[in-house]
Amino acid sequence: MDLLHNGCWLQMKSAFGGCLSILAVLLATVGAVLSMKYLDNSFNNLHQRIGIALYSGIWLQVLTGILRPHRERKGRSIWYIFHWLQGITVSFLGVINIYTGLQAYHGKTSKSVRIWTIIFTAKISAMIFLYLLQEKKNYMQKHGVILDVQPNDQELSPRNKQKETPTQNC
């Protein structure tokens, strides 16, 4: 089944992105409520201030996504750039806020956060590496350096040939 050619992939990608946005807002809201209820929130440290900006940015990102103009509309490209920059900003603020939170925890408890800082840095580095690797692969495919190889009829077993029946559009 080739989802890229019949439009299902774009529908699935959009639905998945929407579900992730809803999940992010729900988790951020739960975190904000728990923080307000159980922690001292005088907003006197950088972590708390970034948290407010981050929470506002998450909600703005979701609202911007909901108010997306149709593809044929004139303002769609401006909306796309704004929504993309918002997403990058929220992601970057989230990463910064984890580091500032670790430092705030260290300042409050005097416990070492070195191992958590190393683990988080390794995770972020791996994510950036995989993202850049994916982008490079897409670039190389687009420019013909890597070809998508599809199996021919001789390489397909009889069982695989049965699976190759045309599918219905989403």
Structure explained in plain terms:
This protein has 170 residues and is mainly alpha-helical. It is 71% helix and 0% strand. It contains 5 helices and no strands. It has helices spanning 8-38, 46-66, 76-109, 114-142, 158-163. The radius of gyration is 22 Å and the shape is flat. 4% of the residues are buried. Residues 1-6 have low confidence and may be disordered.
List the helices and strands and how they pair.
Elements (H helix, E strand, L loop, with lengths): L7 H31 L7 H21 L9 H34 L4 H29 L15 H6 L7
Key features of this structure:
170 residues; 71% helix; flat; disordered N terminus; mainly alpha
Class from helix and strand fractions: mainly alpha
Which percent bin holds the helix content?
Answer: over 70%
Helix-strand pattern, N to C? HHHHH
Oligomer: single chain
Sheet with the most strands, sense and barrel status: none
Describe the global form: flat
The mean pLDDT is 81
Distance between the termini: 12 Å
Strand content: under 5%
How many helices does DSSP assign? 5
Unreliable sequence segments: 1-6
Strand tally, please? 0
Report Rg: 22 Å
Provide a brief overview of the structure.
By secondary structure, the protein is mainly α. The protein has helices at about 10-40, 45-65, 75-110, 115-140, 160-165.
